[in-house]
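Input record, target 12 of the design panel.
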């Protein structure tokens, strides 16, 4: 036991994640923390904000989804 306790959760859209990554690359961790806190003002703890920035910086956008194929008629198999 003794680990961190999750008390809240938030969702980061790709635009916000990209802005945080750019702030990190251009201005360093403190700039990225400022960008995170600008977008998520309820994050007030700098240590937690730095942890979130590091996590977000490690994310990469998902690959584009492949278009769905046409629907098959029930009972017909494609061999």
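The sequence produced for target 12 reads:
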């Amino acid at each position: 036991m003794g680990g961190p306790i999750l008390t809240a959760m938030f969702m980061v859209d790709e635009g916000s994640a990209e802005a945080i990554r750019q702030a990190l690359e251009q201005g360093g961790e403190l700039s990225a923390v400022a960008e995170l806190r600008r977008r998520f003002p309820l994050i007030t703890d700098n240590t937690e904000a730095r942890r979130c920035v590091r996590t977000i910086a490690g994310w990469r956008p998902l690959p584009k989804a492949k278009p769905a194929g046409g629907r098959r008629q029930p009972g017909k198999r494609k061999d």
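The chain has a mean pLDDT of 84.
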